[in-house]
């Protein structure tokens, strides 16, 4: 058991004094929190201004990426998180991903919308060829405002992956909990609590794709 020092305020009158001081401290903390919240709102407003300045540069980047085959599939699969969790069943679909669009910091809470655009050839696997997920943050809670439902033409990548590992992992619950499919991000039934795919796309993949796309080149040069 860890040791704790005795309270300095021991008598009843001193206890009342302690409560009064703690109440005063709480009020001070509240004032500091109000300033922090005001600061965060102003920072977000500035961030949105700079986000606007980036848009034409993202369009310039898009025109270059369109000329590189499987750029987004390779970028995603080389990210450290997906490097350990990417399966061929996911990659077969992802290699038809032609563009990623991000509407970031849609409000003062930092809500965002991700759009994945696939080549029409993806219709062999699924419909539609444009997937959207709109995540809203409010009062420190996260909710999904919009989610494209994927209609798989055959079996979903997750279903194929689960079948592949069914004999190795054991129970169905353990199997489902241990497998990550990129397309879990667009599933209502699968929680992405373990790996926040949206944040990885938003923070890493979209803003610094070249870092991950060139990962193999960097490793081979070491």
Describe this protein's structure:
- This is Nucleosome assembly protein.
- Pfam families: NAP.
- One of its GO terms (biological process) is nucleosome assembly.
- By secondary structure, the chain is α+β, with helices and mostly antiparallel strands.
- It folds into two domains: 11-55; 68-221, Nucleosome assembly protein (Arylsulfatase, C-terminal domain), CATH 3.30.1120.
- 52% of the residues lie in helices and 15% in strands.
- The chain has helices at 12-65, 71-78, 80-85, 88-94, 157-169, 172-178, 197-205, 209-213, 215-221; strands at residues 97-103, 112-118, 126-127, 130-138, 141-147, 151-152.
- The strands form two sheets. It has a four-stranded antiparallel β-sheet with strand order 1-2-4-5, covered by helices on one side.
- Helix 5 (157-169) packs across helix 6.
- The termini are far apart.
- The model has no long low-confidence stretch (mean pLDDT 89).
DSSP E strands, number = 6
Shape label? extended
List unreliable stretches of 5+ residues.
none
Q: Could you tell me the CATH topology label of the largest domain.
A: Arylsulfatase, C-terminal domain
For the sheet with most strands, the description reads: 4 strands, antiparallel
Helix content: 40-55%
Portion in strands:
15-25%
- Provide the domain count: 2
CATH class of the largest domain: Alpha Beta
- Rg over C-alpha atoms, rounded to the nearest angstrom: 24 Å
